[in-house]
Amino acid sequence: MDEPALIQHAQQGDLDSFNRLVLEYQSLVYNLAYRIMGDGDSASDATQEAFISAYKNIRGYRGGSFKSWLMRIVTNACYDELRHRKRRPAASLEALAVVETGPDAEGEAQLVSETESPEAHAERTELASALQHCLDNLPDDQRIVIVMCDVQEMDYAEIASAMRIALGTVKSRIARARAKLRDCIQRQRELLPSALRLQSEQT
Amino acid sequence: MTFFPSSHDRELELLSAYLDNQLGPAERARLERRLAQEPKLQATLDDLRSVKATLTALPKVKPPRSFTLTLKQLEARGLAAPARPPIRLFALVNVATALAAVLFAVIITADLGGRFNVAAPAEAPAAQVESLQVAEAPAAEAQAVESASADAALKSTTETPEAGVSMLAPPVEAEPLTGAPGEGGGGGPGVGGGGVGTTNTGPAADAGDGAPAGVTGTVEPTVATPEAVAQAAITETPTPDSSRTRATTEVPLETQEATETLAQTPPAVRIAEIALGLTVILLTVVSLIIRRK
User: Fold this and answer.
1) Is B185 in contact with B266 (CB distance < 8 Å)?
2) Hey, CA dihedral for B55, B56, B61, B67, is it positive or negative?
3) Cβ atoms A29, B67 nearer than 8 A
4) Considering the domain boundaries, does residue B204 fall inside one?
5) Residue in B closest to A157 by C-alpha
C-alpha cells in the first residue's frame, strides 16, 4: 500500500497501517535520534516517544512531506529528552562519561558493518567515536541541523520545514556547526591521524 | 542584542551553502572566481568539505529493536481508543439538528398563522369580522350585526385590556362615525372597539340624538378602561363613552389579530416552541464541539 493511503488509514485509527509507517521510517528516526542524543538508550527512548507522539497527532498531519513532519516530531522528542537530561545532572554526567569513552557497547555493536577488515572497522569506529564526541559538544540547535543535513542528507528546505525556522537560519547554523566541527576534529587530529588523513585524501 | 555576522562568518556561510549546492548561478560563479584567486579561501572550503564528507560517511546505526506500537503501550498512555473521528456521531447530530430546526420553524409559522387558536374557535373570528364590517361598512349596515356578538366583544375586550388602552391612545376623529343624527341608525351607537361587537338594539334616532360627544367632533385621547368599553358594549343606550369606543375600530386589524393569537395560543404549544428552540441551540453547540475534535 502506498504512503498516502497508509497515512489516511492511520488517521482513521488503523494501528496496523501506522505500524507499517513505523517500520518504513524507524531506521531514519533512530539514526537521527542517535546522532542528536549521542547514546543508544536515549535514542531508543526518543524514538519511541516520537512514534507515540506521531500516532497521537497524526490527525493533525495536513499533507506535505511526511518525512519532514516526522523529523519535526523526532527533534522535539530529542529536545524534550535533552531538557530532561539537563534537569538531572547525575544522569547528564553518566551520559558524558559514556561519550568520553566512546559509544556504548550496544551502540557500537549495532553499527552496520559491511564486509571490511578488522583494522578498517576499528579505524572507522574510532573516527565515528571522535565525530560523535565533537557533535555532542555542539549547541543543540546546531547539532540537530548538521545531523539533518550531513548525516540524514536532508536539503535546507526540508530542515527549515522540520525545525520550523527560516531558511537563512538553517544556512547560518549549518555553517557555524561545520566550522566548530572542523576545529574540534583538528584538535583531535593527533588522536586520529590516519582517519582524518584518509578523509582529507578522499576530498 | 542583535547579532551581526562578521565577514568571516559570512564567508563560512557562503562556502557552506556552496558545498550544499544552495547558491544561485551568479553567486556561485562569483565565488568560484574568488576561490581560483584566493588559496586561503580554497583551503577553508576544503576543510568544510572534509567535515561534510566525514559526517556523511558515518555508518548507519541499526535500530536495536522494532518501534512498532502495541495496544498495551497505547493503553498505558491513554491512547487505546482508536483515533477515528466520530463521523457517525457527527452526522447523527447534524441530522437531529436539522430536524429540530425544521420542526421549530413549522410550529412557529403555524403559531403565527393562528393555527393553534383553539381557546376561542368561533368567537374570536366573529369578533374580527364584525369589527371589520363596522369599520368599513356604511352605518346602516351596522344594524344587521347580531346582538349575540356582544358577548364575544365583551370577552375579547376584557381579555386584552392593554390592547384596548393602546388602541384608544391616539386622538381620533369621531365625526365619520357619528354621522347625522336621526338618520335611522346612522350614528351606529353602541359600537365597541378592538374587536368589540355592536349592540345596536336601541332606536337609531335616539342613539344619534343622544350622542353629544359624537356631534362635537374630536374625541380626547383619554384612556378607556376595559370596564368602560364593556359597559358601552352591553348597554343599549348610546353614551359619550360609546363614541369613544367606536373610534377604536380604526386601529389596524393586524394588531388586533396578533393580540388575539398570542392570547389564545395554548400553553402546551408555547412550551413545545421553547423546548424545540433550546434543543436546536443545544444540538448546534454539540455539533460544533464534535467538529472541533
Assistant:
1) no
2) positive
3) yes
4) yes
5) B22
Task: Tally the domains of chain A.
Answer: 1
Q: How many Å lie between the alpha carbon of A9 and the closest alpha carbon of chain B?
A: 9
Closest CA to B16 of B40, B50, B58: B50
Cβ neighbours of A153 (radius 10 Å): 11
Q: Which domain holds residue A192?
A: 3-202
CB A134 within 8 A of CB A99: no
- The rounded Cα B225 to chain-centroid distance in angstroms is 35
* Distance between CA atoms of residues B157 and A174, nearest Å: 90
Q: Assess whether B40 and B93 both reside in one domain.
A: no
Residue B62 is nearest to which of A19, A112, A151, comparing CB atoms? A112
8 Å CB contact of A199 and B50: yes
Facing A52 at nearest CB: one of B47, B66, B73:
B73
pLDDT 10s digits, A130-142: 888 899 999 999 9
Domain that residue B156 falls in: 123-264
Q: Are residues B260 and B139 in the same domain?
A: yes
Placement of cell 353614551 in the chain: B239
Asked if the Cβ–Cβ distance from B52 to A150 is below 8 Å, we say yes
What is the rounded (10 degree) CA torsion for B273, B277, B278, B283? 140
What is the Cβ-side half-sphere exposure of residue A195, based on CA atoms within 13 angstroms? 26
* More confidently predicted of B211 and B35: B35
pLDDT of A88-142, one tens digit each? 655 444 444 444 333 443 444 444 445 667 777 777 777 778 888 899 999 999 9
How many structural domains does chain B have? Answer: 3
As a dihedral over the C-alpha atoms of residue B221, residue B150, residue B141, residue B160, rounded to 10 degrees, the angle is: 40
pTM of the entire structure? 0.51
B88 inside 8 A of chain A by CB: no
Report CB contact under 8 Å: B63, A27. yes
Taking CA atoms, A82 is separated from A49, A95, A178, B226, in Å, by 13, 11, 21, 86
